[in-house]
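Listing S7. Sequence submitted for prediction.
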Amino acid sequence: MKVALAADHGGLHLKEEIKKLLTSMQITFEDFGCNCETSVDYPDYALPVAEKVASGEFDRGILVCGTGIGMSIAANKVRGIRCALVHDTFSAKATREHNDTNMLAMGERVIGPGLALDIVKIWLGTEFEGGRHENRVKKVMDIEAKYSGVK
């Protein structure tokens, strides 16, 4: 598995903790920034990660900002991305099993590093169930295609 990772200034510290976890799990990753505490614009960091995941260059993407909200909104504008904002372990598992999410967003100002790392482990380790969920995910992707102007 290959993971793309980014944060804005509000998620910098949690991103660094996630990098340590990915290293300990022997998961290949690339850090797309930011690497400062100076205020930056979250779309500038969400977009490159979402594009890399959508293109298939990376299997999954993880984004962190203050709340996770801005990052998830920006990532979900990219065709083919299903980014879930998650702050609990139940949702981390469900979003993979039921929604086949390929990106995860979290908020450093919302949860602590212990819970965040548990969420990452669960999210990375959970497979899509398929079955009845496949048709639902397909419907979501059809909506995306309809409103992106691409058939």
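Caption to Listing S7: primary sequence and predicted structure tokens for the chain studied. The helical segments are 12-24, 43-55, 69-75, 89-99, 113-125, 132-148. The beta strands are 2-7, 28-31, 60-65, 83-85, 103-107.
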